[in-house]
Design a protein that fits this description.
This protein has helices at 37-46, 48-51, 119-124, 141-144, 302-312, and strands at 3-7, 25-26, 57-69, 72-85, 95-104, 112-116, 145-149, 153-155, 158-167, 176-183, 189-196, 209-210, 217-232, 235-251, 256-272, 281-282. The chain is mostly beta strands and 314 residues long. The relative contact order is 0.25.
Length: 314
């Protein structure tokens, strides 16, 4: 009988190819502001109302989740979604409708069954502009994190300030280390990369695992995330997000000693004129995409969507 694990790509946290590689060229003619990096970060969040769309909007996206055991895929699910993005200034969550699904779980003969609960909803919640700074509310950033400047870079005619952040001190909750890309002209946050601070946190698996059998020992080796935004007509919009979780799973009882990698990501394929999504299957935060019974479309070339994903995540 299989041991069942329900894995979250995110727990309490909650591109297009044109913006695919911010690590481009240094910007030697641009210098960092003279004031402290924490002030720049605070200013970036203060300007959310100016830099990001205030109304709700609708987008179409491609979503992919992949579970690997020692580099061999044991579960792969893809979906085309319509997402109703709630206003950045409302307390409402984004709504997700599943349009098409392609699943490939036939090769899952593994003794441990991983299922990703929440899937697209969790990835959508990586939108830090809508939800929260990693591990805390915006108002508590300076209490929990240190901020310092990196070297500015240039990309596609824009210059971005780089601000690195790391956890100030140990605390009960698990925090993060990362890097923020801030547009030098508008002070909009264009991208943020962050990873879970796992130092002395053997309990980190509790953030991801639900229903762990007692005989299993689970260690989180790495948990990293990225979210990017795209500028259009003076406003910035959510563009993509991704989560990568690396786990070690051991059990003396069943002679298990393996590594599992859980990767999930979402990229925008189009921005729609409508402000309301109608056709599709609603996807709730407690649902599992692999368990959804929705037909795919044999005429779709899924590999093209996957290529878009790869380009976005470079």
């Amino acid at each position: 009988m299989k041991s069942k694990i329900t894995a979250f790509t995110l727990a309490t946290l909650m591109t297009t190819a044109s913006f695919n590689a911010l690590a481009a060229t240094d910007a030697p003619l641009v210098t960092n502001p003279r004031y402290d990096a924490s002030i720049l970060v605070a200013e970036a969040f203060n300007k959310i109302g100016k830099n990001y769309e205030s109304n709700k909007s609708c987008i179409s996206t491609y979503y992919k989740e992949n579970v690997k055991k020692d580099n061999s895929t044991i579960s792969l699910n893809e979906a085309l979604l319509d997402v109703e993005k709630a206003s950045y200034f409302s307390g409402k969550n984004d709504k997700i409708l599943v349009k098409k699904i392609r699943k490939n779980n036939t090769f899952n003969a593994d003794p441990i069954l991983f299922k990703l609960q929440g899937g697209p909803n969790n990835i959508a919640r990586l939108d830090i502009i809508k939800y929260s700074f990693p591990g805390c509310e915006f108002q508590k950033m300076e209490d929990l994190y240190n901020f310092e400047y990196g070297n500015p870079i240039s990309q596609d005619g824009k210059t971005f300030f780089i601000v690195n952040f790391n956890q100030k001190q140990s605390c009960e909750q698990i925090l993060y280390n990362g890097k923020i890309y801030i547009d030098s002209e508008s002070f909009a946050i264009a991208k943020i990369e962050f990873s879970m601070n796992l130092h002395n946190r053997e309990d980190a698996y509790l953030s991801f695992i639900k229903g762990k059998p007692s005989h299993l020992k689970i260690k989180v080796n790495e948990a990293k995330y990225v979210v990017g935004y795209k500028e259009y007509n003076g406003k910035w919009y959510y563009d993509y997000s991704r989560s990568d979780i690396d786990l070690s799973v051991k059990s003396k009882k069943h002679n298990i000693d393996n590594k599992y990698t859980i990767t999930s990501g979402m990229v925008v394929t189009s921005y729609n004129n409508s402000d309301k999504i109608e056709n599709g299957h609603p996807f709730k935060s407690n649902e599992i995409l692999a368990d959804k019974s929705i037909k795919g479309d044999e005429t779709l070339i899924w590999e093209l969507y996957d290529e878009l994903m790869l380009l976005a995540m470079l």
